[in-house]
Design brief:
about 0% strand; mainly alpha; 16 helices; Growth Hormone, Chain: A; globular
Amino acid sequence: MATWFSATSVIVQMAAAYGITPQNQGWITAAVQLGFVTGAIASSIVALPDVVDPRTLMRIGIFVAAIANVLIAFTHSVPLALALRFLTGAGLSIVYPPAVKLLSAWFARERGLATGILIGALTVGSFSPHLLSGAVDWRAVMLGSSALAIIGIPIISLLPTSPAALPPTKFDITAVPRILKDRATLLADCGYWGHMWELYAAWAWAPVFFAASLQAAGSHARAGPLIFVAFGLVGALGCIVAGALADRFGRAAVSAGAMMVSGTLSLSIGLTFGMAPWLVFTGLMLWGFSVIADSAQFSAAVTELAESAYVGTALTLQMGIGFLITLVTIWLIGATRLVLGWQHVFALLALGPALGAWAMIALRRRPEAVKMARGRR
């Protein structure tokens, strides 16, 4: 997952090299989101995650993402760089959902914790390029993140074959309409889509916000390593803690609670701009913990609620639409931050967790909710 935010972590250097204006810097991340959306929706329409061995899909996806990412370091064309970022996202669209599907089959018990650990790994991997940003040339960050991704291919080869719990599936054009008609699954999806309204815009712009805040406070601290801690390490911890709590107290309850916390931080984090770096960093750690804590539980819920033969398709569809939503908010923050200022722009993200929390509370009240977390709503 290091290829996801590789370019985002060096956005200032890339923008200077390519002449990208501040208003358009969000497209460096948005291009990956668009590639993921395109790949996820296309693969879900043909039920690819349920027809092809997940390990094969993951190896192909890693290879495509790593090669596309490394080529960015050798191009001087903005359109080509964006096309390669798109291809990076398309590759990752057949890495992430199949991994969640495999875990759902291996872990009938403690599925929330297992999926939380997986999303925690995604979080650490995604933010790993920030460790190098500002310390080396931006092209070295692109090369290093691709090298990390390639390491994933032999690791995937060590995975056992698909468990017997995964039934063989044939292509069915009616799978997606049936998934969308399932009210309980749709509510879990709506919770996830509200969560995604906030998540990737926060991930994409919080590093820029923090760097600007440090500069405004007269600090010479490197933002990159601190962002890795706040959103990578602390975020991964949030995934694991929320996973353990969800298995014990219920997915809907924990997810709604996490969104209430992260939504509150979306409203308030901008007010710390330019203040003492330790205060801003503390706020970012709280946001990093809560903004991703619930993510795994939406995926786990879908694996428990959706038709068993098409779990992979349901997951990919959920993620595809979710990442489509991120395109809107990543652009929105970039387009309005100069008008609203860092103090207020993140408040626009609070709408998503508010609606997502409502959806999960509604799901908790439905009879199908007993399928989640062995009866814990």
